[in-house]
Amino acid sequence: MFIVDYILGLGASVMMPLIFLILGLILRLSFGKALKAGLMVGIGFIGLSITVNLMIDSLTPVSHALVERFGLNLNVLDVGWPAAAAVAMGTRVGVLVIPVCVAINVFMLYTRTTRILNVDIWNLWHHAFTGSLVAIIADSLWMGVFAAGISCILTMIIADRTSGDVEKYLGLPSISVPHGFSVSFVPAAWLVNFIVDRIPGVRDIKIDTEVIQKRLSILGDPASLGAIIGALLGIIAGISVKEILQTAITMAAVMTIIPRMAKMLMEGVYPISERIQEIAQARAGSFGKIAIGLDSAVSVGHPVTLSVSMLMIPVMLVLAAVIPGNQFLPFASLTGLPFAFVLVTAVCRGDMFRTLLTALLTLSIALLIGTQLAPIVTSTAVSTGFSLPQGTTSISSIDYAGAMLPWVILQGFYFKVIGIAILVASTVGLMLWNRRKLAQENAMQAQEEGN
User: Fold this and answer.
1) Residue 175 DSSP class
2) Which domain holds residue 265?
3) In contact, 13 and 49? CB cutoff 8 Å
4) Three-state DSSP class for 159?
5) How many Cβ atoms from other residues are within 10 Å of residue 202's Cβ?
6) Assign residue 116 a region: left if phi > 0, alpha if psi is -120 to 50, beta otherwise?
7) How many CB atoms lie within 10 A of CB 33?
8) Structural domain contains residue 18
9) Which of 354, 374, 422, 445 is the most buried (most CB within 10 A)?
10) Number of structural domains, the chain?
11) Does residue 217 fall inside a structural domain?
């Protein structure tokens, strides 16, 4: 417990460089190269963290003003992902989740049911969150750990299935995003693509930021787009002219700086990734391409991702007010919305129209899921000693209590033996299916290289 707490207490900016340094040495990179790789990853994470925190600090008063202006008075308080993560890692499941998920990753690599080497240790808290809720439902620590394992496996599979899109549309070769929150929105994006592709006229609608940039340089430039959206948010919130201007400039900075910080982080990832590929090809040619699993922060600054996320802040407040049965008041999670749409942007091929449709669908459902899971989330938080805000009796969070993946897993355990059996069978079936897909992709890659 002490060791786990100490490691997590280091934070991603320290933990990730150490992981990359050790990994580089294991892969027999020189100490200098391994150290530089680790430092560049750390610098990139710090830059991303500072910029994301800048965005959060700027948008929090805007979100508060929007809540007051819409006059929302809902009884489930949104505590945001930091509180959800603290609760998840504070449980008995949270203590075990890191070694369990690392063992699962090794097993899946060995059985070739994944190609991902996940070094994003911190975000394993998503699986701990799911497992912690199940542990309370089933009154069993081991059922909770089992649920966390299922969550880990399903996340890895979805990350595998999106790695091609991540490379092609986000410009991140040999990178995958096994981030629990981000992958939860992917099935909805697949569904939206499937439906839109079958509707004449609608399937031809495309909002491409690159095209916009060519035709309307002001709207297409990330800095200008950030400034415009920031100003619009401020105007809708009814804040002062000074605050509107400050929000606009901050959003322009965020949309400009984040991609550059992500690029710096990738400078540290590439030497490790290339070395892994060399070893894989030399010792296990049939193993195929390996992807490094990273936090979705590596592409949170994509223009489509950020634009859709900021546009959805006022829209989500409207949805909270009009959706029947909703009691969830979105607030703390609003500034974390970009992490929800990193993979959606990739799956929707960088198209803002389809990403927006997916956002409307998923966030509407997220409000209802957050409402439904509020009692068990509150119970889990109280059991870990989490202090509820004064005057609050019920809490939840879009990340991760409003995501569909944990909700689906929880439903399986609510139905007990039958539900768990369906979950296990589905998970094993998806692992075998993913293994077959990976084998096909490896064969295609080998054929292309042979030609």
Assistant:
1) E
2) 60-450
3) yes
4) helix
5) 13
6) beta
7) 15
8) no
9) 354
10) 1
11) yes
| Tokens 């569909």 -> residue | 404
Q: In tens digits, what is the pLDDT along the chain, a chain of 451 residues?
A: 456 556 656 666 677 788 778 878 887 888 888 888 888 878 877 887 787 677 767 777 887 787 788 777 778 888 888 778 878 877 889 888 888 998 999 899 989 999 998 988 778 899 999 999 999 999 999 999 999 999 999 999 999 999 999 999 998 888 899 999 999 999 999 999 999 999 999 999 988 766 655 554 555 566 776 788 788 878 888 888 999 999 889 888 877 787 777 677 777 777 876 777 677 666 555 556 788 898 888 888 788 888 888 888 888 888 988 999 999 988 778 778 889 999 999 999 999 999 999 999 999 999 999 999 999 999 988 888 777 767 678 889 998 899 999 999 999 999 989 999 999 999 999 999 999 999 998 888 777 766 6
What is the largest distance, in Å, between two alpha-carbon atoms of the chain? 68
Q: Is 366 left (phi over 0), alpha (psi -120 to 50) or beta?
A: alpha
Task: Identify whether 376 is part of a domain.
Answer: yes
* Sequence-ordered list of residues with C-beta below 8 angstroms from that of 269, at least 6 positions apart, any chain: 20, 37, 41, 175, 292, 294
Selection from 120, 117, 94 nearest residue 104 by Cα: 117
